[in-house]
Amino acid sequence: MMKENILLLGASGSIGNQTLDVMKNDKRFHLVGFSLGHRIEQIPTILATFKEVKYICVQEKEDYEVLKKQYPLVHFFYGDQGLLDIIDASKPTLVVNALVGFCGFVPTYHALKARISVALANKESLVVGGELLEKAQKETGAKIYPIDSEHVALAKCLKGNKKEVRRLILTASGGAFRNLKREELESVTVEQALKHPSWSMGQKITIDCATMMNKGFEIIEAHYLFHMPMEKIDVLLHDESKVHSLIECQDGSYLCDIGPSDMRIPISYALYHLKRKEVQCSKLPLEEFGTLHFHAFDKDRYPCVEFARKAMEQGGTMLACLNAANEVAVYAFLAHQIPFLGIEKIIETCMKRHRVIENPTIEDVLYADKITREEASLLVKEMNVK
Predict the structure, then answer these.
(1) Dist CA 294 CA 349 (whole Å)
(2) Helices 362-385 and 123-140, interaxial angle, to 10°?
């Protein structure tokens, strides 16, 4: 049994914690290192289970200075550069990228360029730099294994069936406000937005579910992961979150992946390089699923999905603009600085003002992210004053 030396970026988040849960049940997984941002209080718990860890990255230099004295046998790193240094130092065979936001993009690119495959939960990596990541994979032979439940479902359904596919269908719960009319969204609160009907996730992704920007991102990701034209990737609302995605075949039949709403299942599929293994999680017999409901997707109700499609059509740095504007707006909403519908307004305004750089380098992507964040932050201030 060959060991898989894993570096886990984003160990303290929801996906990170569940990844550790999957790993501890198979001795082939060897945790060589991890990052956890500001949540350094989780370090003792992780080290108690994974005693083999030799590398840890934190966000702040102050924490780094304290921790390297507290744990002299562990090599510590800090900041954004630390995320790259820990990849180089730990020499993993697989990087699990469970970071949230744009900060996950450069580590994904860095790992692929170093010929290290990536199990990818960080949506933003493919959204802002899909073409760069595709090129890196072709150059090095390293691979991206998706962790998102929707993309894992598509990967399973596409095995041996790609030539017969008419379209890919991403299912969506509709988020916390799926039963509200558009005019009712003007007065919704942060607390209401964080009550996802099916999944337990971090705050940022939960808000992205409420706006459906997450589904816009997933369409872009599916395009790069499965080399499918954008016009052949659709969204279908599904209340129960049991059917994780579908493919429609040329003969009109459908193939789908159906199972419990438990992220340990898609995480396991990625860790085992797109192979099914026994997962210690809740089981749900098919006879207990009950009735499943599906609804047509209304693009006017969820304009963020159309923003994502338009960004992909324009290409270049517009995709980095889309993501940066969304990140700034979502965190402003979470901080009670703007209303819920203000998220869409900021994204739309930033996209209208952005001057696209075609065929961007990684430096172009970083620049587009920077200037869009500045623009979006000004819009937040203007909206907050009003």
Answers:
(1) 32
(2) 180
pLDDT tens for residues 27-55? 999 999 999 989 999 999 999 999 999 99
Range of the domain at 35: 4-146
User: Within this chain, do residues 297 and 325 fall inside the same structural domain, yes or no?
Assistant: no
CB atoms under 10 Å from CB of 349, counted, come to 16
Beta carbons of 154 and 244 less than 8 angstroms apart = no
Out of 102, 119, 146, pick the residue that ends a domain. Answer: 146
Question: Of 286, 306, 326, which one is at a domain's C-terminal end?
Answer: 306
> Do 292 and 340 reside in the same domain of the chain?
no
Q: What is the pLDDT of residues 317-360, one digit of tens each?
A: 999 999 999 999 999 999 999 999 999 999 999 999 999 999 99
Residue 362, pLDDT > 90, answer: yes
DSSP label at 357?
P
180-214 as b/e: b if 16+ CB within 10 A: eeeeebeebeeeebbebbebebbebbbbbbbbbbb
Put simply, whether the predicted model's pTM sits higher than 0.90 gets the answer yes
Q: Kindly state the DSSP code that residue 316 receives in the 8-state scheme.
A: T
DSSP 10: S
Number of other residues whose CB lies within 10 A of the CB of residue 79:
14
User: What is residue 97's three-state secondary structure?
Assistant: strand
C-beta separation of 242 from 292 below 8 A? yes
- Angle, to 10 degrees, between the axis of helix 264-271 and the axis of helix 149-158? 60
- The answer to whether residue 198 scores a pLDDT higher than 80 is no
Indicate the DSSP class of residue 47.
H
Identify residue 366 by its one-letter amino acid code: L
CATH (domain of 383) = 1.10.1740.10
Structure tokens at 104: 């996950």
Which residue reads 């009735």 in tokens? 291
| Beta strands per DSSP E along the chain | 4-9, 29-35, 55-58, 75-78, 94-97, 117-120, 144-146, 165-172, 233-238, 243-249, 254-258, 294-296
CB 80 within 8 A of CB 104: no
